[in-house]
Design brief:
The protein is of the alpha+beta class. It has 3 helices and 8 strands. The radius of gyration is 19 Å and the shape is elongated.
Length: 147
């Protein structure tokens, strides 16, 4: 998001689909039950698309933060029943922004399968790190020339 301050914010997603490793997955994974592979992300969000979810209040305050989500995966690969597990710092809208990303279809997830058939269930966890853009220095007026 390009805010009123003229900076472009950055959102970084670090995630796991429980029981399955993806390209940029967190090293700590929980095992899935045998015979019921857990979902895994098919795509990562486009960085420019993520930036549009940066909370306005945090952008104006030049604050970064973290939100962690846990969602149930639908048979179609969507996310449902998402909850914010963690939000730091509170009061800047990072949890709400993470929920909006999930509702907005930012991630497409490969659902778990049972006997080769996509099945609802399985959990998708994502830690979203919001980083503010570096502050742009304000131009200073040149000193008054001597008279």
């Amino acid at each position: 998001m390009v805010g009123s301050l003229g900076r472009t914010a950055t959102v970084v997603c670090i995630g796991i689909a429980l029981g399955a490793v993806e390209a940029n997955a967190s090293p700590s994974l929980n095992a899935a039950p045998v015979g019921a592979p857990s979902p895994s992300a098919q795509s990562q969000p486009v960085p420019g698309k993520q930036a549009e979810y940066y909370p306005d209040r945090a952008n104006r305050a030049n604050r970064g933060g973290v939100a962690e989500l846990r969602c149930t995966v639908t048979a179609e690969g969507g996310l449902a029943g998402c909850v914010v597990l963690r939000e730091e710092p509170t009061g800047y809208g990072f949890g709400a922004a993470a929920l909006a990303m999930a509702r907005g279809g930012v991630w497409k997830v490969r659902p778990k399968t049972v006997d080769g058939t996509p099945t609802a269930g399985g959990f998708f966890e994502r830690t979203i790190v919001f980083r503010p853009a570096p502050a742009v220095p304000r131009p200073t007026a040149p000193p008054n020339p001597p008279r």
